[in-house]
Amino acid sequence: MDHLNLSEADWRKRLSPEQFHVLREAGTEPAFSGRYNNNKADGIYRCAGCALDLFDSDDKYDSGSGWPSFTRPITPDRVSEHGDTSHGMTRVEARCARCDGHLGHVFPDGPPPTGQRYCMNSVSLEFRARANGEAA
Predict the structure, then answer these.
(1) Whole-prediction pTM
(2) 13, 93, 105, 111: which has the highest count of C-beta atoms within 10 A?
(3) Domain 8-135 has CATH 2.170.150.20
(4) Nearest to residue 101, comparing CAs of 33, 37, 11, 31?
(5) What is the mean pLDDT of each run of 10 residues along the chain (136 residues)?
């Protein structure tokens, strides 16, 4: 997979201010505020920065955390994981493997089959509904 490298100015042109803050500055949207937290439609969640397919709705669940949560990415190589010690916590940050955009965090308290909770910011994602069994 080719890595997408853009200048800060190019990212600012490409993204909304809220998307830039989350994807490029590792910000976080407020809990229960994201448009995809309660989305139950069938489809694919892509990176809002580069349109890489990241998560399938089949792996989405209601974690009660206030952010869209998934048990796993579409394939392991789509999301990179990094240690994060910001805000006085030790967490695992999830980033898009193509553009290195901040997506959210991964926690070891998810349901089977993985036991993982990929807790993502809605603003980092774009949803594409599936039409006739394929992503639109």
Answers:
(1) 0.92
(2) 105
(3) yes
(4) 11
(5) 91 97 96 96 97 98 97 97 86 96 97 96 97 56
